[in-house]
Specification:
186 residues, mainly alpha, 5 helices, 40% helix
């Protein structure tokens, strides 16, 4: 009986070691995915539009307290200036989070994991469908300029997994971005 009890304890201990090792591998895979996602988000310049600029000591700089939170909800903008004829057909807000052109006015999305105003309730498949199709959640409205979804759509499934994993790991920021505006009637 004692031998049977000792064998059970040993088996449980071995099982615990195996589970701990597996969890460590999972944790390592997750950390690797987060770091690779951070690298891809940085290399693709996602912060350039999805993180508002603020005026710093050397001029405009990303406001990292709002990292990837999109156009600031509290920043109401007047109507965009009229677009001139010719090759100059786009204007942007000083934060680089609102853009106007022949398509109307677009506001950069909140990519943080906030469940109410960001992508916190999205599944990885929703994220992939959005960038693969150029449509919100793969079936909604079109993504608008300057979002280079065609470039992001060229990423591998593994890359998109890593980007999504990273975006889900950053601080959630409650920031309800305005809906796009149609082009001004002329």
């Amino acid at each position: 009986m004692l031998l049977k009890s000792l064998l059970l304890v040993a088996a449980a201990g071995i099982g615990l070691v195996l589970v701990t090792t597996a969890m460590s591998d999972t944790d390592r895979d997750h950390a690797r995915s987060v770091e690779r996602g951070r690298y891809l988000v940085t290399a693709m310049g996602c912060n350039d539009c999805h993180t508002p600029l603020k005026l710093g000591p050397n001029g405009p700089e990303p406001d990292m307290t709002r990292m990837l939170s999109g156009h600031p909800a509290e920043m109401a903008l007047p109507p965009a200036p009229g677009l001139p004829e010719g090759p100059w057909n786009t204007v942007a807000a000083g934060t680089l989070t609102a853009w106007n052109g022949p398509w109307g006015t677009s506001f950069t999305a909140n990519l943080t994991p906030d469940p109410e105003t960001g992508i916190g309730r999205w599944k990885e498949a929703d994220f992939a469908a959005t960038v693969r199709t150029g449509r919100h959640l793969g079936r909604g409205r079109n993504l608008l300029p300057p979002m280079p979804y065609q470039n992001v759509a060229a990423l591998t499934d593994a890359d998109l997994h890593d980007v999504f994993t990273y975006l889900q790991s950053i601080p959630a920021i409650a920031n309800r971005v305005p809906q796009p505006l149609p082009p001004a009637r002329q």
